[in-house]
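Bug: token stream looks shifted between consecutive jobs. Job 1:
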Amino acid sequence: MSATAKLPRWAELGLLPLVNLLAALVLSGVIVKILGESPWAALKLMSAGAFGSQEAVGYTLYYTTNFIFTGLAVAVAYHAGLFNIGAEGQAYIGGLGTGLVCLWLGAWPFWAVFPLAVLAGALGGAAWAFIPAWLQARRGSHIVITTIMFNFLASALMTYLLVNVLIRPGQQSPESREFSAHAVMPAAHELLAKVGVTFTATPLNLAFLLALLAAAFVSVFIWRTRWGYALRVAGQSPDAAVYAGILPPRIIIGAMLLSGALAGCLGLNELMGSQHRILIDFPGGAGFVGIAVALMGRNRPLGVILAAVLFGALAQGGSQLSFDMPKVNRDMVVVIQGLVILFCGALENVFRAPLARVVAMFGNRGGEE
């Protein structure tokens, strides 16, 4: 049985990613053991650091929010047959749009600033994705190469603006002035307090709900609309799409615009929801983690959410782990993330054939009974 062995849908979407994740964790445990620490103790520390208290849960979901946005961005492009490596840069420019609205319109009431900030973030990310999309659709440039280049361009642009234009007067740190109170996203503990629920103060904010709504929108768009159907057809077979009257260049541009818009919403969580000012490198690599989130989530919105929670737990739990186990520092968490990416991406089919045999064996046994 080959690596392309067929699996039932439930096994393809649920069991195979779980087996790949367990393999990554086992190998990570071996590395922790080599470092002289207990893998089981490390796992318990990481789990407690991610879910052991209200504060831990708040921080985990805060990181999860970023990964949902970027994971959805990668997933939408994937369904169109595109590999968007540029979510980091698109998040940068989208965040710039959100930050500028918060800086310039901060005197307005929140109900007026909020929709404009969301729109500016989405438009900024979409605009940064448009040029690579147009270059592939009209000039044949590879989307992977151009989006990687645009990540560096976005970083350079933000550095220039924060050092020379947006920097708060009288300081040396490259960051803008703080947003006014009207341009700050409500925190989760403040919203819960209004309904009588006590929750520890954390950076978790309203953007988490927006990320879940974005996932619901993507699910409906991809599988319940004719535009989503055209996008999937063009991604799976451009020749069949042309035969059906679908124009792949339009699909490429449209899919990348939506992908960039989703990535651009990351600034709502980081800037408007947490930092309350524009900072250097505020995406923090979330655009690249989004690739792993989409791969592990099988490019399905629900899978993206679950994978984003996992990577959010790794980000938060890794802080606790490095504090209590000095030998296992933050770099080790990056190694674990890398192993998850390796097994859920490049090596995702390693366990497909044996898993298909096991599923078939139990299926046949159930049929005999």
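Job 2, same session, no restart:
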Amino acid sequence: MKQTHSEGIQNWLKLIRADGVGPTLFHRLISHLGSVEDVLQASIQQLTRVEGIGDKTAQRIHATRDDFDVNAELAMAEKHGVWIIHCKDGRYPAPLRAIYDPPPVLYVKGTLARSDSLSVAIVGSRRCTTYGQEQASRFGHILASAGFTIVSGMARGIDTAAHHGALAAGGRTIAVQGCGLTRIFPPENEELFCRIATSGACISELPLAYEPLSENFPGRNRIIAGLSMAVLVVEASAKSGALLTARAALDSDRDVMAVPGKIDSPFSQGSHRLIKDGARLVDSIDDIMETLGPVGETLSEHAATHAEKAKRKNETPLFDPANFNLSPVEIAVYNSLDGQPRHVEEIVADTQLEPGKVNAALISLRLKGLIKQLPGNVFLK
């Protein structure tokens, strides 16, 4: 099904592309003046009444608000199969909308699903070890198999491995680009870009033809963190951009986890620093389970209040627990639990499923926080 642009996207593009307007100032303008259309029609004097806008900035905004060629941008989007949404659109990811400075507009190639509200970011250095690539792929595969969407930046190294792991599991993955979606970066990931777009989405806040400049990537990192419930740093050097993503995650009240490496490896210096500063050390899937395991419980309370607000605003709830996308086997295993502790052998007998499938489903349900494991292979809903 072909996706359409948000209604009124032309004016949103005009404003965000005006000289001097970034995400933070964009939202401040809307908050003060009322709507995108009101801002575009505002006088220089009205613009100067907005906090942080002096005469020069107001003049720049006023002079350049019609400079961006919106029609050419929309024609290019049509040509490349990209749809553009603004942050008032119900399809806009609810977790991303909740951060301090959400992108006013998002370019999307692929699909956004409600289940993407259950996302985990896996990030790390471009220059990495074989060990790092293996761990990124492994965790990407396990989490995607459990129904989580894997978010990363499609950069060389750890990001690429995480995307591949999710795709190998047949799961969803989202790549956030630090350039326009017609400038695939790195270029050798063109095939990966296409695969991600068919089983998830490639997204960017930047104009379609925007080049991959270094100053774009801090903004890209905040989107990765904002889309995700938690960020897993697999391998990061002391100056890795993955550390910026981790900081952005903390700023947005997301959990941060890190995989340790060799104590003398420069490729893991940043990861070890995160652990010293309080990030959850992850050396097995059980550690991720303990971090994400309460998802079902904590989100059910959070979503109860947020869902009512979202309903009134016609929005998707933030991190909606209804989006777990359980497989038929998971549903059968979950339904076999009736509130009383049950041994795994009882579950196998009750469901008449293969033990291997039951164990895989139990792991997945634990990851999603829907069941608890008690001592002796006993499980409780």
